[in-house]
Amino acid sequence: MGEFDLIDRYFKRPARRVALGVGDDCALLAPGPGMQLAVSTDMLVEGRHFLSTVDPARLGHKALAVNLSDLAACGARPLAFLLTLTLPQANAAFLGAFAQGLWALADAHDIDLVGGDTTSGPLSVGVTVMGEVPTGLALLRSGAQVGDELWVSGHLGEARLALEAFRGRLSLPESGFAAARRALELPEPRVALGQALRGLATSAIDLSDGLLGDLGHVLTLSDVGAVVELGRLPRSPLMSVQTAPVQRQCLLAGGDDYELLFTAAPQRAEAVSAVGRTLGLRLTRIGRITGADQGLQVLDDAGRPIDQGDFTGFDHFKRGVA
């Protein structure tokens, strides 16, 4: 199978929401009047971001999902994406399943594939997403204000539980491992939440590298501090039965959650809760924004600061999934 046969068979179909899609030298996009184009890109590399045992359909889903999560954190509506695929070989079984997972999520968010590149080499997947957001309404990391409340969507830590089980560092019951593995391999980007938070949240970020690490980016760009209450962090029943050290590691530094962490003024708390009810999504207040001189504090159930030394965010040049 040649490169262009591969593209035609698995990754080409008529564009629906863009002026020109796959097949020419450039795609043509036309954001709506009064809109800004939001663009983000992420790469997934075998052995670093995913295991060789991953279902190709789940890999296709996740490759797009982690990028849609960036659009969600900006409050943008998805428009189109580019796909860069490096393959050891053009394996039809792998490509068919990968494309199935990719297209299913693309259809769920009404987003077009408009181009990219394929080449031979170690397995890696790169996606670039483009979305639109009304001018002046994009959610940014730099907008948190002293006195804001700190919120998070969904629950945290299950993806890290799956990774630790894969590493042989803990054991999970069969049903629990399946649930944790699903969280790791099939994250759900919170696109609808991001759009609902426009004009309501003061800042936002998606949780890809761990709660404290990603929160640190918001604090740096907003020039503020924060208090996080450990006991408030939302966790599933599977997480709740783990030991305290495992819970802390997974909740505070787990990574791969792809939930939204955001801030909002206290007087907007009911409006935020209403968004959660409308979307059927758990939204939890986990702390507050303080002055920059107070830094980042994590308090235990007794209100005592805990040592954060072991809970730094994921660093691509220090450790991987293998």
Automatic annotation (TrEMBL):
Entry keyword Thylakoid: no
Q: What does this protein do?
A: Catalyzes the ATP-dependent phosphorylation of thiamine-monophosphate (TMP) to form thiamine-pyrophosphate (TPP), the active form of vitamin B1.
Ranges of residues in domain PurM-like N-terminal: 23-133
Question: Gene encoding this polypeptide?
Answer: thiL
From the Swiss-Prot or TrEMBL record, give the protein name: Thiamine-monophosphate kinase
Q: What class of enzyme is it?
A: transferase
Q: What else is known?
A: Reaction mechanism of ThiL seems to utilize a direct, inline transfer of the gamma-phosphate of ATP to TMP rather than a phosphorylated enzyme intermediate.
For binding substrate, which residues are annotated in this chain's numbering?
49, 256, 314
InterPro entries annotated for this entry? PurM-like_C_dom, PurM-like_C_sf, PurM-like_N, PurM-like_N_sf, ThiL-like
Q: Which residues form the PurM-like C-terminal domain?
A: 145-293
Which amino acids does the record list as binding Mg(2+) 4? 25, 40, 70
The UniProt keywords, alphabetically, are: ATP-binding, Kinase, Magnesium, Metal-binding, Nucleotide-binding, Thiamine biosynthesis, Transferase
Tell me which residues bind Mg(2+) 1: 41-42, 117
Which residues of the sequence carry a binding annotation for Mg(2+) 3? 25, 70, 206
UniProt keyword annotation of Metal-binding present: yes
Q: Which PANTHER family match?
A: THIAMINE-MONOPHOSPHATE KINASE
